[in-house]
Predict the structure.
Amino acid sequence: MNLSSSMTLTVPVGSISRCDRWLACQRLQDLNISCQCHSDGYLQVEITHPIAILQLRSVVQQITASRLELVDWLERCLDANC
């Protein structure tokens, strides 16, 4: 994906629960990713660079994945680096 600084991609995120969307929005804002959590709970994320897509995926994964899924993911990452 090649995004120039003048182009943005708006990604609606609806795969997480309404209350967790506020948490996700705060975390994305901490990462300097523009996003809005509307009063209806709809989270809209503005992607301006490719790294932001990975950060968005990571934030959503941390919120939606079970503890077991996160442990398995971490173990696979550690095994890949050995």
In short: Residues 50-64 form the longest helix (15 residues). The first strand starts at residue 9 and ends at 13. Residues 9-80 form a domain with the Alpha-Beta Plaits fold (CATH 3.30.70).
